[in-house]
Amino acid sequence: MLELLRKYRIPLMATFLLLVALLLYSANLRHREHTTLFERSVLQLTLPLHRVLATLTGGVSGWWEDYVWLVGTRQENQLLLAENRQLHGELDRLQEARLANERLRRLLEFKETLVQKTLPAQVISEDASSWFRTVGIDKGSADGLREGLSVVVAEGTVGRIIRVTPHQARVLLITDASSAVAALVEKSRTRGVCRGQGDQLVLDFALSGAEIAVGDRIVTSGTGGIFPKGLLLGRVAAVTHVEYGLFQGVSIAPAVDFSRLEEVLVLLPEVRP
User: Fold this and answer.
1) Which phi and psi (to 5°) does residue 260 adopt?
2) Is the model's pTM score more than 0.70?
3) Per-domain boundaries in the chain
4) Which superfamily, per CATH, for 118-267?
5) Please, are residues 178 and 198 in contact by the beta-carbon 8 Å criterion?
6) Tens digit of pLDDT for each residue in 212-237?
7) If you count DSSP H runs as helices and E runs as strands, how many of each does the chain have, helices first?
8) Distance (Å, rounded) from C-alpha 258 to C-alpha 181?
9) Burial class (CB in 10 A: 0-12, 13-18, 19+), 240
10) Which of 96, 103, 143, 187 is the most exposed place for a label (fewest CB within 10 A)?
């Protein structure tokens, strides 16, 4: 590039000076009322050059305006995107607060129906093992909890406490295979034992002649000294009869969605004078 400029510096310099002279001459003509024939001839000859210069000047000016506009638009878009993300975050927090308020309202309404005193607790962990179905809560012996206490929510029975530390406790869910709850069919008063089967429940020892239908509510019977009477365990999902069998098979869908446990109530023991 520098070599070309050195080689053609004289023609380039002459062209540049000619353009400057013509531009000055054209500007000077604007202030004169009349032009001579020579001046009109010069203007006519240089008209294409003027048009080229005007086009180049307009193109550079337009490009610069477009560039400035694009830069401003990009900055505005970035601000709008940041504001949009902030608004989405606010909406998510408001939605979470609304759902939490609904859960707490249902839990409070359910608490008012209970005779026993209760202690609210937050679920802070869950057992990921396929062998056990347990959750951890943020209350312990320092809060008056002990092993064997029942844990419930507004929808139904959750389980019982099996391990306690000063500030935490472990709850065995009723769906655990080692869980057994004395139960009865609310409508027919048929008794049995509700056992856990992973994500489902079964009612064992229900006599084959007992009236049990799909949709019947299964509640705690109150016997056994752990769960008070009348707590909802689930609803009958299927009933099977075995020919000449003494008992019928009863599958139960739990009333509680254990995958969404967040707040629970611990039923406290009665304080005797």
Assistant:
1) -120, 25
2) no
3) 118-267
4) Rod shape-determining protein MreC, domain 1 (2.40.10.340)
5) no
6) 999 999 999 988 778 888 899 999 99
7) 3, 12
8) 17
9) exposed
10) 96
